[in-house]
Records
---
Amino acid sequence: MILSEEQKDSVTELVNIAFSRTAAALSELTGNRVDLAVPDVSAYPIAELLPALGRFVRGEVATVHQIFGGPVSGDAFLLLDIAGAARLVDLLSDAGAPTTHMGASAREVLAEVGNILLNACLGVFGDLLQVRFTFTVPRLHLDSLGSMLGSLEIGGDEIRHALLIGARFHVRGSEVTGCMVMVLGVTSLDRFVEAIENWAERATQS
C-alpha cells in the first residue's frame, strides 16, 4: 500500500504529536533533555522493507518488540543499530556501553527505553484515533537486520505491510538514529488509515 500525500501528512502530524509526548516522558525518566527530530514516515510491503530500513540502521540491530492487539493489531518495533544503542544507553545511564553480549543492566535500560517509546507512541495513537490497544510485555532482541526481518516473514501468512517511522534522538548534544516500525496486516492497515483520516477530519472541524 502506498500512502497518498494527504494520508502521509496526517500520519506525520500524528507521529509528531506522539513523539513530542514520548520525548517528554523519556526526558522526565532520565533527567536529560531528549529531543526527537521530525520523523520520516513511509509505508512498504514487508518484502521491500530491508532497503528502506537501511537508511536508518545497518548490520546488527537492537530490537525492542511489542505485540499490540485490538481493532488494529500488529507488531511494533524500535530498532537501533548496536552503535546507536550503545550511545543511547551510555547517554542515559551509567550502565555501560552494551555490545552484542551486553550486560543485564544495559539490556534493562535499553528495554525500558523501548518500552517507554513504544507505549507512549501507541498510547497517543490510541487516544487520538479513539482506538483501544492492548499490549504485551516488550522483548529485547539482538540480531542481524536480515534475521529480524526473516522472523516477520515467517511469522504469518497474511500479506502484511510496514509503517516505517524514522527518527533521530538528540540527547545531551549527541544524535542517535533509529526507527520505529509497525507491521500490520491488510485489514489492520486499512483500519489504521481510516482512523487517521477520521482524526484529521475531526481536527479540521474543531
---
Amino acid sequence: MTSQAIPLSALDLALAALLLVLNGGISLWLGLGITRSLAIAALRMTVQLLLVGLVLKALFAQQSPWLTLGVVAIMVGFAGYEIMNRQDRKLTGWWSYGIGVSTMTFAAISVTCLALTTQLKPDPWWDARYAVPILGMILGNAMTGISLGLNTLFNTVVRERWAVEAQIALGFPREVALRPFVRRALKTALMPTINSMAATGVVALPGMMTGQILAGADPVEAVKYQLLVMFLIGGATGIGATLAIYAAVWRITDPRHRLRLDRFQETDQ
C-alpha cells in the first residue's frame, strides 16, 4: 500500500471552515438559535482532533504496550461515561456506568484482539498504529448500540411495568416476562449498524475506505479493509448490546423474579 495523500495546508482547512461560517450566517438569518452551539462544536472538534493527532504521533513513535494500554483505558472510560449520560433513566449507584463499561470493554477489546491476531497480524500485534484506530471505530459503534439498547429497555420496562408484573404474577419467570422488552431493546441497539451496512456502497462511502482511497490505496484493497471493519463493528455491537441488556435485566429484577423499579435513579430529564 503506497501513501500518495495530498498534503493539506492551514489555508486549505480555513477555506473549508468557511462553510461552517456560512451555516452560522444561515442560523442567524433564520433565527435557528444554533449559532453558538455550532461554533462551540466546531472549536471543540478542532481542538480535540489536533490533540489526538499529537498524542497518536507520540504514541506511534514510542511503541510501548503500556502507553497503548493507557490510551485504551482512557477511551473506554470516556465511552462508558457517554453511555451513562445518554440514558433517560439510570440505575442507582455505579451500575449504569459499570454495566456499560464492562460489556463494551469485553466486546470491543476481544473483537479488536481477534482482528489483530488473525486478520491484520501487525508486528508486534499490539502496535498502536493498528490497535488504536481499529479499537476506536469498534468502540464508538458499540457505545452507540449499548446506550440505545439500555435506554430502550429501561424506558419500555418502566412505561409497561404493569404488563411485566402481570406476567410475573401469572407465574412466568423474569426471563420470559421481560423477553419482549429484550427483543425490542436489541433491535434498537442493532438498527444503526444494520442501516449503515445496508447503505454502505450504494448511498454512502465509509470514511475509512474513502480515506484510504484519498491516500492512494487500491480501491479494491480499501473495500476489503472496510468490509473487515464493518464485520468487526457488527460483531462487537451485537455482543456488547446483548451482554449489557441481559446484565440490566438481571439488575432490575431480583432472584424472586420481582421487578425492582426502586433500583432506578431519578433524573432531571
---
Amino acid sequence: MPPLMPAKLNYRDPATWVATWGGSGLLKPAPGTWGTLGGLPFGILFLVLGGPTVLALAAIALFPVGLWATRRVEAMTGDHDSGFIVVDEVVGIWITLLFAAATPLSVMLAFGLFRAFDALKPWPVSHFDKNVPGAMGVMLDDVAAGLMAGLCLLGLRYVGIA
C-alpha cells in the first residue's frame, strides 16, 4: 500500500495544497472521488450564490492555477498525473455543475456522471489523457469529462429526470 503522505511533496509549497485541493487528494482510497467531493461544495456555493456565470468564471480562473500547481507538483515529485493531484477534478465537477439545476438530485447526478466519465475515460477524455503531455493533459481530460457529464445532465434535465 502506498504511503498516505507522499515523501516527495513539499507541504510548505502552496502548489501542493492547490494540486491536492486542500489535502483531499491525499485521502485513500479513490483520491479522485475525494477531490471531486472537496470541490463540490465550492461549486454549489458559486452556483447558488452567483449562478452559472460566476461558476464558469471560477472554473476559468482555477484552470491556469491548476496548471501552475500541477506543473510544480509534477516537477517536485517527478511523477506524471499522480493520483493525489485533484485540482483537475475540481475544475471538471465545476464544469459539470454548469449544466445542473440547484437541486440535490441534479447535483448528485452531476457528481455521479462526472466521476463515471473521469474514471471510464471514453473518447475524447482518453484522447486528452493519452496524447496531451504534462499538466495540460492532466487538466484537459477532466475538462472533457466535465463537458461530457454536463451534456448528459442537460439531456436528463430536458427529459425531466434531473
---
Amino acid sequence: MINRLSVATIWVKDQNEALRFYTEKLGFEIRADVKNGDFRWLTVGLESQPEIEFQLSALKPSHALSQEDADQLTKLVEAGKLGIGPWKTDDCQGTYETLSANGVEFLQPPTDRPYGIIEAVFKDNSGNLMVLAQDKS
C-alpha cells in the first residue's frame, strides 16, 4: 500500500543555478547532493515539511531522458507550462514582499481569488510556474 509522496521532480535547466535559487531566494534547505559520473541526485525541501523533498532534475539526456524528451521538456519549462505547487503560506503579501526582496520576479502580485485564496504567481529561474497561495478563511 502506498503511504505518501516523498519526492517530486522539478525540471531545471542548470542544477547549480537552481540550487542557488531554491536555497538563497526561496529559503529551501539541501536534502541530498550526490554525484555519480554525469548524474547528480540533488534534492531540496522546506524545513517546515521534512517528509517531502523536491528533486532538481537536470534537463539533459540521461539513462531515463532522451535528447528529444529533454528538448521537449525544456520548451515546456521555458514557456511556463510546467511547475509544482501551489506553495502554501499564511501571509501571501508578506511572503511576496520577502521573496521579491530576495530577487524573485513575480508575474502577478497577491490577488484575491473567488475560489477562497489569495495568490501570487512567479517563475523559478528555469521557467517553472509557481503559485504562492494563502487560504482566506
